[in-house]
Design a protein that fits this description.
The chain has helices at residues 20-32, 43-52, 69-78, 96-104, 117-209, 215-224, 226-258, 270-280, 282-285, 310-333, 369-372, 392-403, and strands at 12-16, 36-40, 57-61, 87-91, 109-112, 266-268, 295-299, 306-308, 343-350, 355-362, 407-412, 418-425. It is α/β, with parallel strands linked by helices and 434 residues long. The chain folds into three domains: 12-115, Response regulator (Rossmann fold); 156-261; 263-434, Heat Shock Protein 90. Strand 11 (407-412) and strand 12 (418-425) form a beta hairpin. Helix 5 (117-209) packs across helix 12, helix 7 packs across helix 8 and helix 10 (310-333) packs antiparallel against helix 12 (392-403). The chain is rod-shaped and about 140 Å long. Pfam families: HATPase_c, Response_reg.
């Protein structure tokens, strides 16, 4: 009966036996069947051979000097590099307990001496077929896991892209509508102020020409407190003018942030994007919050215009600054950040490698190593349910690393704040298909 393994790859088999006759017989038999064969005469040699080049199958004698086959098998199964190699025990012992022990230490089969050729070949071919099927299954599992990871990543990107597209459209729409309305207010404030001043001058002139008004007029002047009104109306008009200018500034920030109607890639001022993002987050930085005001220290370097996906890079700034504020708030709640010193530092510089480096640092709660290793995983978040989707950082990573061919790094320790570093090339070459 011929067991020549035509359908199986040319397997590598290691024979471990301290009896030369057994080695010669088995190696000759297996070589004739088309297998690659290696030989070891003791356990230590076998361990060295397996670690150097793991075989596809091991034929292992039970009774050997210095180290038994059971001991060799136990050591192989404890090592992650060799644990998957199937071991068939060879022994003259035919006791049930010997076989049980062989399976307990990790053996897959047990062949008793004297050998029967058909049985040896059949058992070897059977184990090699099982190993081949296991390898195929493992490869399929790996492919499935990769596909699942890609699916999760794509899902995260689509969700965040839709979210940020909606935010950009909302920002642009709000900017347009508010700009029209505030335009009417702002353009009329100056003439309204002039008209009011003219009316006050007219009233003053009437007071000079008619120093003794009638009783109803005197009562009206007293009721409205004309002197106070004349002084306070100037302050009111000034406050309205300041408010209108502030709204105009916010509109400009929204336009810079969204850049909805601009080209996908363009040369922009990075500092302009950072400042517009800070302006949009000002309500979270000021004392109007429950927590104390967060100080922002900017150390901007002399940067050239950077060719990039401007609106997407602004989204990265928004995500990182928003997270920094959250980290500071958590630090304040837990007493890690002092009430008098909540701070965000923003540094920019042009490196010698023609890249722009942007560092956003906070003195918030910090991040431990286990969490830091998962920061850029889709849907991972340390925030309570309902307060974070786990998409901000993974999307930021995709924008910086994949879109801009740059780097996004995090350096942090618990209780010592966190520093995120963005580094992108000054000139971005758009990839075909992006």
């Amino acid at each position: 009966m011929n067991y020549k393994p035509d359908t199986i790859f040319k397997a590598d088999i290691l024979i471990v036996d301290d009896t030369p006759d057994n080695l010669r017989f088995l190696s000759s038999l297996l070589l004739d069947e088309g297998y690659n064969v290696r030989k070891s005469t003791n356990g230590q040699m076998a361990l060295t051979a397996v670690k150097t080049v793991p075989p596809d199958l091991i034929l292992l004698d039970v009774n050997m000097p210095n180290m038994s086959g059971y001991e060799v098998c136990e050591l192989l199964k404890k090592d992650s590099q060799t644990s998957s190699v199937p071991v068939i025990f060879l022994s003259a012992l035919d006791d049930v307990m010997d076989k049980v022990k062989a399976f307990k230490v990790g053996g897959v089969d047990y062949i008793t001496k004297p050998f029967k050729i058909e049985e040896v070949l059949a058992r070897i071919q059977n184990q090699l077929t099982i190993r081949n099927l296991q390898n195929e299954l493992q490869a399929q599992n790996t492919q499935l896991q990769q596909a699942l990871n890609e699916l999760k990543k794509t899902q995260a990107q689509l969700v965040q892209k839709e979210k940020m597209l909606g935010l950009g459209q909302l920002a642009a729409g709000m900017a347009h509508e508010i700009n029209n309305s505030i335009g009417f207010v702002s353009s009329n404030l100056e003439p309204a102020s002039e008209y009011i001043q003219d009316l006050l001058k007219l009233i003053n002139l009437y007071q000079q020409e008619y120093p003794n008004p009638s009783i109803p007029i005197q009562e009206a002047i007293q009721e409205i407190d004309l002197d106070f009104l004349s002084l306070d109306i100037k302050k009111i008009m000034g406050s309205m003018q300041t408010g209108a200018e502030r709204i105009s500034t916010m509109i400009l920030a929204l336009r810079i942030f969204s850049r909805l109607n601009e080209s996908d890639i363009k040369a922009v001022d990075i500092h302009e994007g950072l400042d517009s993002t800070l302006l949009l987050l000002q309500h979270r930085l000021r004392k109007e919050r429950k927590c104390p005001e967060i100080k922002v220290i900017k150390q901007y370097g002399n940067l050239p215009l950077v060719t990039c996906y401007a609106s997407q890079l602004n989204q990265v700034f928004f995500n990182l600054l928003n997270n920094a504020i959250d980290a500071i708030d958590s630090g304040l709640e837990k007493g890690i950040t002092e009430l008098s010193s909540p701070t965000i530092w923003i540094n920019t510089e042009l490196t010698a490698y023609k890249t722009v480096k942007i560092q956003i640092k906070d003195n918030g709660i910090g991040i431990d190593e286990k969490v830091r290793s998962r920061l850029f995983n889709p849907f991972f978040t340390t925030k309570p349910v309902g307060q974070g989707s786990g998409l901000g950082l993974v999307t930021s990573y995709e924008i910086v690393v994949e879109k801009h061919k740059g780097e996004l790094r995090c350096n942090s320790l618990p209780g010592q704040g966190a520093e995120f570093t963005i580094e992108i090339p000054v000139q971005l070459i758009k990839n075909i298909g992006c």
